[in-house]
Amino acid sequence: MKVLTALSGAGAVREVRSNGKCVEGKYFRFRFLCHPSDQFSVRIGIVVNKRQGTAVQRNLVRRRVREAFRFVMKARSAELGKLEMSFFVTPIYKGLKVIPFRQVPFKDLSRDVAAFVEKLQAL
Predict the structure, then answer these.
(1) Over the stretch 39-70, which tens digit does the pLDDT of each residue have?
(2) Potential cystine with 31: which of 11, 21, 88, 110 (Cβ 3.0-4.6 Å)?
(3) Number of domains the chain contains
């Protein structure tokens, strides 16, 4: 069973952006929608601003965030129950300072995603 798929289509992204709840982590802002479903599924969309560098560097950030979600969701899928979840993830910029996400350790990214999932379970 594939746990993680891409959030695609303008309508799906618009729905998550306009109707989704927002939670901020240390590195990312998570917008999400949850719907009851007959099986567990996660759709994720990741937006990285050009301030993060070249296309290669932005794609690296996307891959690392996607892998952090895959790592955490695989471990916690049983706890979350049968939900269809849609996420829209954007990096947080502290004023004019750009956090170089490609230098953030994977363990910290995973911790940020795990903290978000714990907040999600509390809601």
Answers:
(1) 777 788 888 778 778 899 888 888 888 888 88
(2) 88
(3) 1
